[in-house]
Amino acid sequence: MAALKLFIYIVILLVIVALGMLFGFRNDTAVTVDLLFTDVSTMGIGVWILLSFVIGSLFGWLVSLPSTIGLKVSSKHHQRKIVRQRDELRRLKGEPSEG
Fold first, then answer.
1. Which of 6, 20, 42, 76 sits 20 to 30 Å CA-CA off 92?
2. pLDDT truncated to tens, each residue of the chain (99 aa)?
3. Strand residues in 24-99 grouped as ranges (E)
4. Backbone dihedral region of 49: left (phi > 0), alpha (psi from -120 to 50 degrees) or beta?
């Protein structure tokens, strides 16, 4: 099942990359981006749009990363607490504990 899921992710990623390349090739009007202190080389407008999408996605992922890590740590903490309480409940009931 995990191999099928990985295969589907790879296929979806390849389709997205192919569509992005098609978009970039079809929008090849040269544009120079003038930043605050420098000019960036002339590239097609499709490349700039795709680049801004990728940078925005990475930035969004980085912003959400601390909360994701915090939730995973909290989840592990709660799982350990549940196991301890289950073992204590079994001990109080007089049942043998698991291995």
1. 76
2. 888 999 999 999 999 888 888 887 888 788 887 777 777 777 788 888 888 888 999 999 999 999 999 999 999 999 999 999 999 999 888 877 665
3. 30-34, 39-44
4. alpha
- Angle between helices 45-93 and 2-26 in degrees, nearest 10: 160
Residues 46, 25: contact at Cβ < 8 Å? yes
Q: How far apart are CA 63 and CA 13, in angstroms?
A: 22
Tokens of 22: 């098609």
Find out whether 28 and 46 touch, Cβ atoms under 8 Å: yes
Does the model's pTM come out above 0.85?
no
Distance CA(19)–CA(25), nearest Å, equals 10
Contacts of residue 42, Cβ cutoff 8 Å, sequence gap at least 6:
30, 31, 32
